[in-house]
């Protein structure tokens, strides 16, 4: 207790230099914990882009290409899936629901997805969270559109607005469907997934948009006042891909094998969870760079702390000599310096943890909105506790270096006094 009080008073007496050491440790802890938390949460958010979907089915291509095109709206599919194949496969035993996806149109750089009303009931993300509406409702007519949260926010759309989609991927538009404006009837709540950047329209609207010039007469004869839920689907020649959900996960491998061997046309089925992990594995270099950056920051901080303590040591020779003159032994000096380094590492680490939580709290809305990363602030994980323990141990070990030097200084000064 005496050493602890003496160490505390010594730190307070040198508060300017001690504060500098505290800040170096705190900043390194803050950066390390923040980067690690964002890295882990980014990995989880990435893996949870789509959940509750057992299989994604599309024309035979690469697993990752199919995933990127159907889920992330990145790239395009060279071939589609015939409507007959979709109906045949979706009617098989064990399939609980099927969601057709038709891509290829855009609106001001945002993807347009043709699907059915079941999409809003069955599509899930995160930890099997269902889509919800911030305003409006699902489409019920062939000229209606439901917007993702980011589309509505960035383009300033509201319910009742008319929009015109264009044919083409990304920001390249080949033809604007000006004669077929769509009415905004719903805006989805933010999900932090590609759904936020998507416009959702009835499947039949895709065919009408592309065949509008050739079928004007037929469209004029159609009575829009009659209920036509089935007409929201129509009979398209082909779709881009479709999602499948099963009554039991036991059907997954069997149905996947049957689809991969489907005789009607060359198709492939992927399990989104597995493919997402494979895709993240390809980004492992980014993870390693982030971890390396964190380690470098920590090492620089520890070296800064060591430099500060060694510089202070030369200025404390008089203080150490006074302690020796009043009866302090070399091991007392060593214990005092060790206690000081332990207090500095403990206070610096605690301050760094607090700064990390403050930074994550402030950055959470932006990370969710811009990168789709949902930061969990509900406490420190066992992995983070291990990191904190390692940092404290490293800081204490670094602090032992000036403590050892102080020990030999006091030992030498004691021998000089005796002679």
Short recap of the structure:
The protein has helices spanning 2-13, 15-47, 63-70, 83-90, 119-122, 149-155, 203-210, 216-221, 251-260, 272-282, 284-315, 317-325, 330-371, 382-418; strands spanning 55-59, 81-82, 95-107, 110-115, 124-125, 129-130, 133-136, 144-147, 162-163, 166-167, 175-176, 182-188, 198-202, 238-239, 241-246, 267-270. It is an alpha+beta fold and 419 residues long. It has 2 domains: 2-46 and 284-418, no CATH class; 55-270, no CATH class.
What report would you give on this structure?
The chain is an alpha+beta fold and 419 residues long. The chain folds into two domains: 2-46 and 284-418, no CATH class; 55-270, no CATH class. Helix content is 54%, strand content 16%. The protein has 14 helices and 16 strands. The chain has helices spanning 2-13, 15-47, 63-70, 83-90, 119-122, 149-155, 203-210, 216-221, 251-260, 272-282, 284-315, 317-325, 330-371, 382-418; strands at residues 55-59, 81-82, 95-107, 110-115, 124-125, 129-130, 133-136, 144-147, 162-163, 166-167, 175-176, 182-188, 198-202, 238-239, 241-246, 267-270. Strands 1, 3, 4, 7, 8, 9, 10, 11, 12, 13, 15 and 16 form a twelve-stranded mixed β-sheet that branches.
Give descriptors for this structure.
two-stranded antiparallel sheet; alpha+beta; elongated; 14 helices; 419 residues; 12-stranded mixed β-sheet; 2 domains
Strand segment tally: 16
Describe the largest sheet. Answer: 12 strands, mixed
Low-confidence stretches: 170-175, 212-230, 415-419
What would you call the structural class?
Answer: alpha+beta
C-alpha termini separation: 33 Å
The value of Rg in angstroms is 32 Å
Question: How do the SSEs run, as a string of H and E?
Answer: HHEHEHEEHEEEEHEEEEEHHEEHEHHHHH
């Amino acid at each position: 207790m005496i050493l602890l009080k003496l160490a505390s008073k010594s730190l307070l007496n040198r508060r300017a230099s001690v504060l500098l050491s505290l800040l170096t440790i705190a900043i390194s802890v803050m950066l390390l914990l923040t980067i690690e938390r964002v890295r882990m949460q980014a990995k989880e958010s990435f893996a949870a882009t789509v959940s509750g979907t057992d299989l994604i089915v599309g024309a035979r291509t690469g697993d990752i290409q199919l995933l990127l095109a159907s889920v992330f709206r990145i790239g395009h599919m060279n071939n589609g899936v015939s409507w007959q194949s979709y109906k045949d496969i979706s009617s098989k035993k064990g399939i609980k629901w099927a969601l057709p996806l038709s891509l290829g149109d855009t609106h001001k750089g945002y993807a347009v997805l043709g699907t059915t009303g079941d999409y809003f009931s069955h599509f899930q993300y995160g930890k099997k969270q269902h889509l919800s509406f911030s305003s409006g409702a699902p489409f019920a007519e062939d000229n209606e559109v439901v917007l993702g949260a980011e589309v509505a926010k960035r383009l300033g759309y509201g319910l009742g607005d008319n929009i015109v989609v264009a044919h083409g991927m990304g920001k390249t538009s080949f033809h604007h469907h000006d004669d077929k404006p769509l009415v905004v009837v719903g805006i989805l709540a933010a999900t932090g997934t590609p759904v936020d950047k998507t416009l959702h329209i009835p499947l039949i609207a895709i065919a009408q948009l592309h065949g509008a010039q050739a079928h004007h007469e037929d469209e004029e004869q159609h009575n829009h006042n009659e209920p036509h839920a089935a007409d929201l689907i129509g009979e398209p020649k082909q779709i881009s891909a479709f999602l499948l959900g099963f009554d039991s996960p036991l059907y997954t491998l069997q149905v996947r094998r049957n689809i991969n061997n489907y005789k009607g046309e060359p198709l492939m089925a992927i399990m989104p969870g597995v493919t997402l992990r494979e895709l993240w594995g390809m980004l492992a270099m980014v993870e390693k760079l982030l971890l390396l950056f964190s380690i470098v920051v920590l090492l620089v901080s520890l070296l800064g702390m060591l430099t500060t303590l060694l510089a202070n040591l030369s200025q404390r020779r008089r203080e150490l000599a006074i302690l020796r003159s009043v009866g302090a032994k070399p091991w007392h000096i060593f214990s005092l310096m060790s206690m000081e380094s332990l207090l500095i590492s403990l206070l610096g680490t605690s301050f760094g943890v607090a700064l990390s939580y403050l930074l994550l709290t402030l950055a959470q809305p932006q990370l969710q909105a811009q990168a789709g990363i949902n930061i969990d602030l509900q406490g420190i994980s066992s992995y983070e506790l291990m990191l904190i323990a390692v940092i404290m141990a490293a800081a204490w070990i670094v602090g032992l270096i000036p403590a050892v030097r102080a020990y030999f200084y006091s030992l030498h000064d004691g021998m000089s006094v005796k002679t």
